[in-house]
UniProtKB/TrEMBL annotation:
The protein, known as: Inositol-tetrakisphosphate 1-kinase
Residue sites binding ATP per the record: 112, 168, 204-215, 230
Catalyses which reaction(s): 1D-myo-inositol 3,4,5,6-tetrakisphosphate + ATP = 1D-myo-inositol 1,3,4,5,6-pentakisphosphate + ADP + H(+)
Subunit note: Monomer.
GO CC entries: cytoplasm
Annotated spans, Disordered: 342-373
Record field: compositional bias (Basic and acidic residues): 362-373
GO BP annotations listed: inositol trisphosphate metabolic process
List of residues binding 1D-myo-inositol 1,3,4,6-tetrakisphosphate: 179
Chain ranges of the Inositol 1,3,4-trisphosphate 5/6-kinase ATP-grasp domain: 135-331
InterPro entries: Inositol_tetrakis-P_1-kinase (IPR008656), InsP(3)kin_ATP-grasp (IPR040464), ITPK1_N (IPR041429)
Length: 373
């Protein structure tokens, strides 16, 4: 791509650098929450411009993705063959553009079985988190059903699965329906749920976990973990009392306010190194940069953790300082890419480090000043 106008001059009076175009393609709700003025402003200071990509519709006047390019990088959360085709055609014309993330990698997350296979694959490997942190990561027992199994089939299918279970739609494609779940307490409840359904359902063992879920947010190698409210533990008495009940719920753990409300919650966070190790397993295993994963800790065995969900491009704007994490990630990426201009990005990264050091120095001075007052 030809260098654009030199509009960013670093504060350390280094040579002016070129700017980078990051095209983004999101559904309106995502665009509204993610593309905040604070992100645009912060990224812009480091030479990064976020450029909206208009999604081509049936009108002859709409521009194709190629016509809207070129971009240095495209970030996106759109699905479907039409969008994938646009990306394919664009990549043929501009192979240097980084597409984050590739649709084939994202698609693994659209199925609640294949999304967790990556955890099953690294949980048993030696020298992984389990060994280093004396904690074990795995996936709750789960089976896929599309009808109520009878006789021998039930024995084979449901073997080892204990009630209560959570019934989750197999498909996790971002639709409201894909978040609709139910708690089921015995075979009677399961039978009534399956009588009413025609799509495949994942039955996942409910694990008592103290009513909190940990969300590990990944942006490349950067990982942040937060605590959110979850379903409460279920006692044996409740299982008996609730019998054939089917209790529906949806998106109970995605409120940013939970963090504030849980500020005095006694549950310890899992060690960050452990969360980072799990994030790395997912990032490398699925070849994804933008995701979060939900982790719960077994109330009966605090060294045992379960990954229960992985989401593509989650609500990053809920994280404090997401602007910095995003900008650093993109700068690093552009600096290390084979892009001919990447040297400029290295200079920008150096500038960021210098600024951070200066700001730390002034914080320390200010702190001393306060103490001396
Ligand atoms: N196996 C489980 N045991 C106990 N609680 C669970 C289990 N699976 C899910 N939950 C609870 O139900 C919530 C929703 O489940 P899950 O994360 O799979 O759904 P989702 O709709 O994909 O969530 P998100 O909004 O994060 O995409 C979890 O955050 C957790 O509170
Ligand atoms: O909208 P929010 O900011 O809450 O983000 C949620 C995001 O919705 P959006 O992508 O439509 O915005 C969800 O995506 P889909 O599964 O529905 O595709 C999923 O990733 C949730 O886990 C996110 O909540 P979080 O885990 O970050 O709390
Ligand atoms: Mg979840
Ligand atoms: Mg999810």
């Amino acid at each position: 791509m030809a260098p654009s106008t030199n509009s960013l001059v670093s504060q350390s009076e280094a040579a002016p650098v070129r700017r980078y175009r990051i095209g983004y393609a999101f559904a309106p709700k995502k665009e509204q929450t993610f593309i905040q003025p604070s992100l645009l402003h912060h990224a812009s200071r480091y030479g990064i411009d976020f450029v909206p990509i208009s999604i081509i519709d049936s009108t002859a006047t709409a521009k194709t993705l190629i016509e809207q390019g070129p971009f240095d990088c495209i970030i996106h959360k759109l699905y479907g063959p039409h969008w994938n085709q646009q990306l394919k055609e664009y990549s043929l014309k501009y192979p240097q553009t980084l597409i984050l993330d590739p649709p084939e990698s994202i698609e693994r997350l659209h199925n609640r079985v294949s999304m967790l296979d990556v955890v099953t694959a690294f949980e048993s490997k030696p020298h992984q988190s389990g060994d280093r942190f004396q904690s074990k990561i795995s996936v709750p027992k789960q089976v896929l059903v599309d009808h109520y199994p009878e006789g021998e089939e039930a024995t084979n299918l449901l073997a080892g699965l204990e009630f209560p279970v959570i019934a989750k739609p197999l498909l996790a494609n971002g639709s409201a329906k894909s978040h609709e779940m139910c708690l089921i307490f015995n075979p009677k409840g399961l039978r009534s749920l399956l009588a009413d359904t025609d799509s495949p359902i994942l039955l996942q063992q409910f694990v008592n976990h103290g009513g909190v879920v940990f969300k590990g947010y990944s942006i490349g190698e950067h990982v942040q973990c937060v605590k959110r409210r979850s379903l409460p533990d279920i006692s044996e008495e409740q299982v008996t009392a609730l019998e054939g009940a089917v209790l529906p719920f949806s998106q109970i753990s995605n409120s940013a306010n939970d963090e504030h409300n849980l500020a005095h919650d006694p549950h310890e966070m899992p060690p960050l190194e452990f969360v980072e190790e799990v994030a790395k397993g997912i990032r490398v295993g699925l070849k994804l940069n933008f995701f979060n994963f939900d982790v719960i800790r077994d109330s009966k065995d605090p060294s045992s953790y379960f990954v229960i969900d992985i989401n593509y491009f989650p609500g990053y704007a809920k994280l404090p300082n997401y602007e910095h994490a995003l900008t650093d990630f993109l700068l690093n990426l552009l600096a290390t890419s084979s892009h001919p201009q990447s040297q400029n990005q290295k200079e920008l990264l150096q500038l960021k480090e210098e600024e951070a050091a200066t700001s730390l120095e002034s914080d320390v001075k200010q702190h001393r000043g306060h103490k001396e007052d």
